[in-house]
Design a protein that fits this description.
By secondary structure, the chain is an alpha+beta fold. It has helices spanning 11-36, 46-66; strands at 69-75, 78-85, 93-99, 107-111, 118-122, 129-137, 143-150, 154-158.
Length: 159
């Protein structure tokens, strides 16, 4: 009797088949992910946004010139922003939190101060990690912009 088994009962043919098959499955998965998601970092109207950067720099420089400074206290479910420099500003603020890579997580708010001058932002869920915070006066005369890395119960000076 012959001691040779059929090919499908041996280890090595299956090993040689499984490796390329895993690569094919992984590449199909990556293709589906690439087709399903768009690149949010590329601007469609890059020229207009490039021109707007100069206006942004003027607003940032104006905020530095008048000494606008805020303190942001961030804990798990609340953000409190208080003014600590510059002329007293009691109007509403445009406050934006931009996630560095995930546009779907961005937060864009218009916030008014309470009676004690604190701008409070309740959060549905905790935000952590790298963010860019932008505070702009309601009249759009000045802007404070800063990159921060949010951890639990921290304070950030924004100027």
């Amino acid at each position: 009797m012959s001691d040779i088994q059929p090919w499908y009962k041996q280890f090595w043919p299956w090993f040689l088949i499984i490796l390329p098959l895993c690569a094919v499955v992984a590449s199909i998965n990556l293709l589906l992910i690439a087709l399903d998601t768009s690149d949010s970092l590329v601007a469609e109207e890059y020229y207009k946004e490039g021109k707007a950067i100069n206006q942004d720099l003027r607003k940032i420089n104006h905020a530095k010139k008048i000494g606008m400074q805020y303190l942001a206290k961030i804990d798990g479910s609340m953000i409190e922003i208080t003014q600590h420099g510059g002329p007293a500003y009691t109007a509403a603020l445009n406050i934006n939190f931009y996630h560095r890579t995930l546009k779907a997580l961005d937060i864009d708010l218009k916030v008014t101060a309470d009676g004690s001058g604190i701008y409070r932002i309740p959060l549905d869920e905790s935000i952590r990690g790298p963010w860019e915070i932008r505070i702009e006066g309601f009249d759009a005369e000045w802007r404070i912009q800063q990159r921060i890395d949010i951890t639990d119960n921290v304070e950030y000076w924004l100027n």
